Amino acid sequence: MALRSRSTQEFVPIEDIRDGVVILKNGSMRMVLMVSSINFALKSEDEQTALLLQFQNFLNSLDFSAQFFLQSRRLDINPYIESLQARTEVQKSELIKIQTREYIEFVKNFTSSINIMSKTFFVVIPYYPSVIDSGNKGLLGRFLPGKKSGGDAIKETRFEEDKIQLEQKVTIVEQGLTSVGVRTARLGTEELAELFYKSFNPGEKSGAPLGGQPGQQKK
Question: Which domain covers residue 82, as residue numbers?
């Protein structure tokens, strides 16, 4: 029996990304927070104990699941090198030009022997809508466009209602992490698309961390 070739998209669990919400093929929804890190080793023993207790209290206060994960990728240093070279060309001081060229060579040699990794931290908050009048499409019937304009309006209303429920969970996580001293930023549609593209294409080179720094949210 001949095996049917399957496209890569069949293995991707994402059905759609809209308004900063990831809709999976099973109809469940996700929102993603990018969070800052804390240099725990530089804290005093009392501060470390306090942070651990605060984080423990935060986790115990949650009545829903949440996923914490770290994305670690080799940092592409080429854009930084190119910016230094561009500055060298317009620099009038010959001494500074020489020093900049030497620094560029140092960076190239250093990064060729040592992998410099960029680490980004995320929290994923899920929401599972109830199955009501979803027809043969299962949960996805709540969100995917229908044939009639009336059906579209109903699905849009349901999406907004479910999004509000999900955002309430996200707010709880944001407040809990803030109490621990961690900054957060919700990923928008473009940032989510970039995040999942890089996740499913690990061979692609990565530049600066997506979405800027936590606390600098993009619309």
Answer: 76-115
pLDDT exceeds cutoff 60 at 109 = yes
Q: How far apart are CA 130 and CA 185, in angstroms?
A: 28
- Entry pTM: 0.68
Largest CA distance in the chain: 74
Residues 139 and 98 in one domain: no
**What does the alpha-carbon distance between residue 217 and residue 219 come to, in Å, rounded to a whole number?**
7
CA 204 – CA 198 distance, rounded (Å): 7
Residue 88 has a pLDDT of 87
Clarify whether residues 100 and 178 are in a common domain. Answer: no
Co-location of 98 and 155 in the same domain: no
Report the candidate in 126, 133, 170 with the shortest Cα–Cα distance to residue 155: 133
Summarize pLDDT for 13-52 with one digit per residue, the tens: 888 999 999 999 888 999 999 999 888 888 999 999 999 9
Q: Is the pLDDT of residue 146 over 70?
A: no
Cβ(166)–Cβ(29) under 8 Å? Answer: yes
Of 142, 123, 127, 121, residue with least CA distance to 21: 127
Burial class (CB in 10 A: 0-12, 13-18, 19+), 216: exposed
Q: Any idea which residue has 């929102």 for tokens?
A: 31
